[in-house]
Amino acid sequence: MRVSLCLFILVRLLTQAGLATAQIDTVSIRSDTISPVKIDPDKLPKAPALRKILEQGNTVDSAAYQPDSTYWRHKVEAGLNLNQGSFSGNWKGGGVNSIALGLNFSGRLSYRRNRFNWIARTQLQYGIVKNAQQSLRKSTDRLFTDFKAGLRISKRWQWFGSLNLTTQFAPGYNYVTLPSGEERADQISNFFAPAYLTESLGLVYEPNDYFDLRLGVLTLRQTFVTDPTVRLYVPMNYGVLLDRTMRNELAFQAVASYDQNIARNINLNFRYQLFADYTNIAATDHRLDLTLTGKINDFLNANLSGVLLYDQDQDLKIQYSQALSIGLLLTL
């Protein structure tokens, strides 16, 4: 009986302790006294839109989340070519002592990001040759620069606008042998005589990084002849009226460019240009510049270059030039 009474008292105490604990842990809260929590969606971190990420990943020109500097590309090449030959006075094989020096510089700077791209190219060439018993003569002379901006409308097509300039550095001469045996130098060209400044708008097809085709449906070209001496020996005056120094033309222009290694250490670079004046389509100008470069080592290269030109404002026949050289080449 005493045991049963003790057990009853113990159970009663434990029950009361549990109820007291439940009362301590439970707190009544009135919901009508709580203010609703307001969240400003503009202050939350935003995840990039899926569509934007997909578009960046599918364009050829860009990659998502990269520093701006990765969109710039550049290439600079500077070369020096030297050719020399000498013969003793009793050399029976014949020959003329000569020395030739050629300098060339080419550069390319481009920026591509998303749908926009911009590229600048320049090519500078100058060479001289000195043969025994002859005056110093020019062998190569070219100043060319080209700027193009494009806006991509598909994976391979884009709108473009371009500006380029072609001229030379120094006077050019036609050497005529007189009946007396002496030579006369007639000046037929000079700096900005002629010079061609061309602005073009249209579409460009660019399937990869080494080939593009420009179709300039709206092209303006200014031809300059600023040296009056040239007019004395070039009756056509490069298409410019004799009493003027500039000529304007509205035309269609197509330019195809290719620059790619076709084998190990061998690079092929060509640029073909067609220019058709809308007022005289039959007198279409054509120019092809081609350069084949073979790399011997990090500093030496062999270079074969050529130019084909047909321009009725200069001559009714096809003009061509060709050069083969070995020299130093520095690439940055």
Shape: flat
Q: Compute the gyration radius: what is it?
A: 38 Å
How large is the share of residues in beta strands? over 45%
The averaged pLDDT comes out at 85
Q: Major sheet: size, sense and barrel closure?
A: 12 strands, antiparallel, barrel
Q: What is the tally of beta strands? A: 14
Give the helix level as a range of percent: 10-25%
Main CATH class: Mainly Beta
Coarse structural class: mainly beta
The unreliable regions are: 17-27, 49-66
Q: How many discrete structural domains?
A: 1
- The name of the CATH topology is Outer membrane phospholipase (ompla), Chain C
Identify the CATH architecture.
Beta Barrel
Work out the helix count.
3
End-to-end Cα distance, whole Å, is 108 Å
Sequence of strands across the biggest β-sheet: 1-2-3-4-5-8-9-10-11-12-13-14
Secondary-structure element series: HHEEEEEEEEEHEEEEE
Word description of this protein:
Strand 2 (98-113) and strand 3 form a beta hairpin. This protein has a single domain, classed as Outer membrane phospholipase (ompla), Chain C, CATH 2.40.230. Helix content is 12%, strand content 53%. A 12-stranded antiparallel β-barrel has the order 1-2-3-4-5-8-9-10-11-12-13-14. Strands 6-7 form a two-stranded antiparallel sheet. The model is unreliable at 17-27 and 49-66 (pLDDT under 50). It has helices at 2-25, 50-58, 228-233, and strands spanning 72-85, 98-113, 116-131, 137-152, 157-167, 172-177, 183-189, 195-205, 211-224, 246-263, 266-277, 285-295, 300-310, 319-331. The longest helix is centred in the N-terminal third of the chain and has 24 residues, at 2-25. With 332 residues, it is mostly beta strands.
